[in-house]
Amino acid sequence: MEVLRRAILQAGPPENFALQTVQEVIKPQKQTKLAQDENQLLENMLRTLLQELASSAVQSGEPIMQYGQSIDDGETSHAQIPRLLDIVLHLCENEHVEGGMIFQLLEDLTEMSTMKNCKDIFGYIESKQDILGKQELFARGKLVMLRTCNQLLRRLSKANDVVFCGRILMFLAHFFPLSERSAVNIKGVFNTSNETKYEKDPPDGIPVDFNFYKTFWSLQEYFCNPAVTLVPTKWQKFASSLTVVLNTFDSQPLSEEEGDTNDLEEEAATFNIKYLTSTKLMGLELKDSSFRRHVLVQCLILFDYLKGPGKNDKDLPSESMKEEIKSCEERVKKLLEMTPPKGGDFLCSIEHILDREKNWVWWKRDGCPPFEKQPMERKAVGDGPKKRRPRWRLGNKELSQLWKWADQNPNALTDAQRVRTPAISEYWKPLAEDMDPSAGIEAEYHHKNNRVYCWKGLRVSARQDLDGFSRFTDHGIEGVVPLELLPPHVRSKYQAKANDRSKRAKKEDSKGAPSQAEENQIATSANEIDGEGIRADLEASAAPMDTDATTGTSNNSQGGTPTPDEQQKQSSDTDIGQEAGQLDADAEADAGMMDGETDAEVDLDVVG
């Protein structure tokens, strides 16, 4: 003990003598780190010394955190208890002793001190927050620190020690991570012990609307536990009471002068956590702008809870209740905006806070996943020579390997079975099976939904089956399937329309044949007239010319003027050629619209 007392009185930083002092007192087996039993022995000695110092401070009448402090020759010596805590904190930080020892000493010190001294002790805790929050210390002492702060909060008065309570809560918020489950109230339990007491019987000789007084303060019962408003009878009672209060606020608006008289910044110095509920103060409180805002903001918080996301179906309000909530909320916001001073700015701030609160609610409903992410460890670069990246012949490993295989097996790229155009019946067979209702294939799994398959099939049909390709205009992609692949009851649907179309084509061809014959007959008459004029001028050479003319006339009748059968055949061939070309172009355009690809992107041949 005497060694520890001398160490407290030494000047200089603790790192100069702390470890040597422990080694002198304990004589540990290891030079820099104590064993478990050695830690327990040192902790008992330190707790005993701390109790003696606190007792001596109380007897001397000095504050605990200033006991032993003196000023000699203009130099200020450290107080003994803070000096002892600094030495232990240094030992814990450097892992010479168990990390939770400093937290245990702080808990003992707060338990044996008055609330006045506890404020100084907590000031020391706040000053060492960064060191106490280090991972090696936090993991060992977080529960002890939480217990210490909760004990302080129980001892404090919520009405008279508001500032000190706020300091403790702010410390806990900074000391513990945001995702600490012990501080987020996952179940959403309300503090129903925060009861607002008000007068139940009307006072004598005081002119006050006691019915309004009871109605007004009865709202605090619902604000204290908003979950009860989900019961229909409770909601109706709350809604009627709230309507009375809002009507009173509407009938007694506040002027700008009344709002300016209540300076919120000056009021913050004497702010009380709860308003007084005396009937004598009811009239004055209604003229207080901050009092009105307090009640209206409570209404918005309750409405925000009822509309909150992530609730179960049984916890959601009914449709009629939602309409009432919406109308009441709009009315409350309007009153907030009208309440001076700067009602509009105040309303915008409250809406922003409530909007951010939704993110907090969703985070709690999701089980409070941690926000913090551990930093990635950077791998140390070796001092040796850097390895050169391999250079591939064709830019990467896969293409180079493929080229290597082609060199080893030259037939791999020239094999006829590698790239070939399949037969039309083989290609359309899967789609024909889909079209059979007896197969029972669902529509979403049909091959006609595969745009690449349809596009390639149209290209193959355009080359091998022009008749089937022409059915694409009337029947779509299913009409292109060869008829012999389809079942009889499916084939009839496409075959009938094909026969009607061929009849229509023959009828149009027969109408065009007479007009073509008339044009050919006129052209033949004109040629005969010209031939007769030539024979009249050349009578001397009538025999050979007649022979030539006869031959020319014969050739003209055979080649220049086709017969009706030849004209019909020629017209039919011409129409079929034009129709096939038009269908090919339409098919390519439709297929391009289906797939969104160009001819350069889709190969004409189908890979087998």
Automatic annotation (TrEMBL):
<protein>
    <submittedName>
        <fullName>THO complex subunit 1</fullName>
    </submittedName>
</protein>
